[in-house]
Specification:
Elements (H helix, E strand, L loop, with lengths): L6 H14 L11 H40 L4 H10 L6 H10 L1 H14 L1
Helix pairs in contact: 1-2, 2-4, 3-5, 4-5
Length: 117
Amino acid sequence: MPRSVNHVASRAKRKRILKLTRGYFGARKNVWTIAKNTWEKGLQYAYRDRKTKKRNFRALWIQRINAAARLDGLSYSQLMGALHKADIEINRKVLADLALHNHEAFQAIVKQAKAAK
């Protein structure tokens, strides 16, 4: 009895992955085994870099807060300690946005933190 193979499904799977690898360089876009490996590796990079992105943004926020705090005579760690003592709960993302786009509001927060210090 002949072997039964579902060519429709396997061809569709290959076509789907080859469609996802369009735009890649060289054999990465049209040779099945290389394209599949490249696509899988891309998924690994995407998963890893979603975590890395969070780290990078947190570092950027800290740098922006530190730069703005130094204009007001405090370091980043002194400011964060003073905010904690003053019970001002504001996250780094919002604090960095205020430091960049609305420095007057940032200075008001720093003034409150200095008063409670």
